[in-house]
Amino acid sequence: MSTLEALWTELADVKDELALRDWFPGTSGNLSIKVSDDPLNFLVTASGKDKRRRTNEDFLLVDAEGIAVDPTHLRASAETGLHAKVYQLTDAGCCLHVHTVDNNVISELYGDEGQITFRGQELIKAFNIWEEDGAITVPIIENYADLKTLAECFGTVIGPDTRAVLIRNHGITVWGRSGFEAKKHLEALEFLFSYHIKLKSLQKLHDGQPSLI
Amino acid sequence: MSTLEALWTELADVKDELALRDWFPGTSGNLSIKVSDDPLNFLVTASGKDKRRRTNEDFLLVDAEGIAVDPTHLRASAETGLHAKVYQLTDAGCCLHVHTVDNNVISELYGDEGQITFRGQELIKAFNIWEEDGAITVPIIENYADLKTLAECFGTVIGPDTRAVLIRNHGITVWGRSGFEAKKHLEALEFLFSYHIKLKSLQKLHDGQPSLI
Amino acid sequence: MSTLEALWTELADVKDELALRDWFPGTSGNLSIKVSDDPLNFLVTASGKDKRRRTNEDFLLVDAEGIAVDPTHLRASAETGLHAKVYQLTDAGCCLHVHTVDNNVISELYGDEGQITFRGQELIKAFNIWEEDGAITVPIIENYADLKTLAECFGTVIGPDTRAVLIRNHGITVWGRSGFEAKKHLEALEFLFSYHIKLKSLQKLHDGQPSLI
Amino acid sequence: MSTLEALWTELADVKDELALRDWFPGTSGNLSIKVSDDPLNFLVTASGKDKRRRTNEDFLLVDAEGIAVDPTHLRASAETGLHAKVYQLTDAGCCLHVHTVDNNVISELYGDEGQITFRGQELIKAFNIWEEDGAITVPIIENYADLKTLAECFGTVIGPDTRAVLIRNHGITVWGRSGFEAKKHLEALEFLFSYHIKLKSLQKLHDGQPSLI
């Protein structure tokens, strides 16, 4: 199996697993995996597919501009530009964009504040953060309809410790050095989002309990 | 495989997928797919089946009046008239009716207002709406026990941009040009309903946050 | 396949489906199917099994007293007496007892009132109730530790229209003429419980909305 | 099949089942099964694995100090010390550590009180508690970053009736004499946690209802 085939399989396996969780509602979401750095080439989701099916037209190889490397009738996902940004600004090898009810709720609840920070949670170790008072911050940006404006704004919030960006009412984009690590980061964040929402809905009901997060 | 067989398989696949999500509680729900326009013929769910099983008696071919085209011992779903309305008034090729806890909760919460509108959500693109301030409105009608009255009322709320109708405490009816598109619309609406309910349950708990939707 | 084998298979299929939904937490729950009326014989769950496994020791044949008909090392479920009551007092052919978070929450919320009634819900048709203002009432009894007292109290609340009984913080017992009908009744009630809980958690947050159920 | 192979299979089966429920988010969680008492040897999860995959490198055999019994490139889970404590202080044969949203929410809501007690719930019988007013108490300890301090604190809260310990925002550790019993205890507790959270979120909305748990 060539490297390209191995990376295709790695990405398709991640897609299958996320699809099983229903994390691509209404054909939303897209995924990519880096194939080469110089020039930047990556496999990215073809547009408009049913992500519960596994076919040999699920991904196509594109360059840093999101242009298909080989002639194809497939159209790269409209959000390919966000994936390119991630590969240009970080050490990511794989990048996932999914919508869940909980990540969209968090993006709206904290959209005005522009970020959400988690600390004091064991799951933070999924980001290889081991300090006693370690914290993970996820920036939240507005959902600009113009995809070029969106990609630019997206790029400005990615710092050295950023592993994910929430777009307001437009899901999360998360990455890691491999498909395995990207999925680990995504699972940990979704857990933290769900935990936060559930705790928040209870905190005013628990007598004498101060704000919990 | 004949066209009829291909359409049967398309509908059966959609049914399997929705059944896996438990969207047919208590044998509720029904599905149809259009076979011909003139005269109108469509495959529709036979009444009272366990929708988790896949059998060759799951559907029957009916005409615009809901009458079986060929002699059969099968009884068409009691709500076949709603499906006929959809094919007569829209460009639908497939029509799905399902009950979920969340679509019923939305139908009751907004039943008096007669509709619910979503805007500012990326998932709206599932309806091929790309404008910056695009919106999708779902009418909500009362659940008349008389099925003829129900079908008439149902027909009156379907406009050129309507893709779905909620019946109060009686699930959602949603359509698309194909099984794939109908399912895409359904998934997107269920996502929006769940998102709305979860956000609503939190909004009064978030200091200084105005009404969010 | 003999009648007994056919009934065993029917019950095992229902068990598999409910187990997939995680409706037997901590090995709780039990199921039965009637084999003969005179004398009353029914297959009932053997005690303490992992209900996610399908084995040929999952059920045993017992009589009206819950005594094994044939010599066996298996022990009938401690709650076999409730199943016997159902067969003696109704036309049930199959009886299911399961714990879900939502049925236990409903049993506690309405335990003092001794019952919960649903009306104005399409899902009520799962109970073959078609009137415009039809209603389904589920009695709720206290969870007596003494199983004989529990069975007696259980018997006193079963009227001609009763299809299920909630025991306070001890799950639901529901029945139907066949495995298919018992499962249909169970699914419809679980849907109504979940709907009620979700709507209730929102109703005070919706301005100007009166009590909804 | 040797005893070691049988125990490996038992543990791998439990892992598969918990993984299907998504109870190992972000590669969190770990499991072990006792192989011998004198000296204490047990199979424990290798660090950092994707628990949805089943491989022959999922577990390794360690001693009471958590040191690998045979030469291996595998690293034992960082929390192996907690498993050793359980085997030293109880009659456990299998020990499970998982994160769920609900067990973490409970650990935070009741962290200051240092424990949570359930009574009046049928599911308590999963712990072989049959008295009418039986109760099960789960201690909650702080999540010390230093694993040695954590293990010591963990050991101090384990009494003769303890079957599980919650670590604040760090999941639950639960045990039983076998994999089957450990899983039964875990399922019962997760059910009780989910029930408690859902009931709590409703209790202030139910007129005239006193504090329910």
| Portion in strands of chain A | 15-25%
Compute the number of strand runs of chain A: 8
Low-confidence stretches of chain A: 205-213
Largest sheet of chain A: 8 strands, mixed
Q: What is the H level of CATH, i.e. the homologous superfamily of chain A? A: Class II aldolase/adducin N-terminal domain
Widest β-sheet, arrangement of strands of chain A? 3-2-1-4-8-7-6-5
What is the count of structural domains of chain A? 1
- Overall pLDDT metric of chain A: 93
Rg of chain A to the nearest angstrom?
17 Å
Helix content of chain A: 25-40%
Most extensive chain-chain interface: A-B, 26 and 29 residues
Q: What is the CATH architecture descriptor of chain A?
A: 3-Layer(aba) Sandwich
**Oligomer kind:** homotetramer
Number of helices of chain A: 5
Q: Quickly name the level 1 CATH class of chain A.
A: Alpha Beta
CATH topology of chain A: the name is L-fuculose-1-phosphate Aldolase
Summarize the helices and strands and which ones pair or pack.
The structure is a homotetramer of 213-residue chains.
Chain A: H1 3-20, E1 30-37, E2 40-45, E3 59-63, H2 80-89, E4 94-98, H3 101-109, E5 115-119, E6 135-141, H4 147-156, E7 164-167, E8 172-176, H5 179-203
Parallel strand pairs in A: 6-7
Antiparallel strand pairs in A: 1-2, 1-4, 2-3, 4-8, 5-6, 7-8
Helix pairs in contact in A: 2-4, 3-5
Keywords (chains A, B, C, D): Amino-acid biosynthesis, Lyase, Metal-binding, Methionine biosynthesis, Zinc
Cofactor (chains A, B, C, D): Zn(2+)
Enzyme class (chains A, B, C, D): lyase
